[in-house]
Design a protein that fits this description.
InterPro entries: TPR-like_helical_dom_sf (IPR011990). The protein is mainly alpha-helical. It has a single domain, classed as Alpha Horseshoe (Serine Threonine Protein Phosphatase 5, Tetratricopeptide repeat), CATH 1.25.40. It contains seven helices and no strands.
């Protein structure tokens, strides 16, 4: 059971994305999300909830990238709406903090590259394009901000 922790599945998803094994990445992401759904938010200390939120955001971003590579645009769009809706709705900066951490660990570039490729090369419907463009803009802003901070 220890190897089925959400964090482990999330890391495996990232590795699968790097290896371009998108079906496996989706599988790991789904396992992580299912595992995370077993933790009711009302009963957790704030620090634990923050870690669960971080893993969930990261996992959804990996799954979005995987779905885009598999040309499953509807599923990517659904996850994109969850990330944007839940991440930005809190308004406490935790979503941006997760993106910054991913950037520092070199994990954000994978997702960003897939988003760029999908937005440039595929003909997507308007709603999917809108959500993905919004997410891509957030990722690009994060990368710029972090590169400025690292230079200082």
């Amino acid at each position: 059971m220890a190897d089925r922790r959400p964090e482990k599945s999330c890391e495996q998803a990232c590795e699968s994305l790097k290896q371009q094994d998108y079906e496996v990445a989706v599988k790991h992401c789904t396992e992580a999300l299912l595992s995370l759904s077993q933790y009711p938010p009302a009963h957790l200390p704030e620090a634990c909830q923050a870690e669960i939120d971080r893993i969930k955001i990261e996992t959804l971003l990996y799954r979005i990238a995987s779905f885009l590579q598999l040309k499953k645009y509807g599923q990517a769009d659904e996850d994109c709406r969850h990330v944007l809706g839940e991440g930005l709705a809190k308004g406490d900066g935790s979503f941006r903090a997760v993106l910054c951490c991913m950037h520092l660990k070199g994990k954000l570039q994978i997702v960003s590259n897939v988003l760029s490729k999908s937005l440039m090369g595929e003909s997507l419907n308007g709603m999917v394009t809108k959500d993905l463009t919004r997410l891509k803009t957030l990722l690009a802003e994060t990368e710029v901000i972090m590169s400025i901070l690292v230079e200082k």
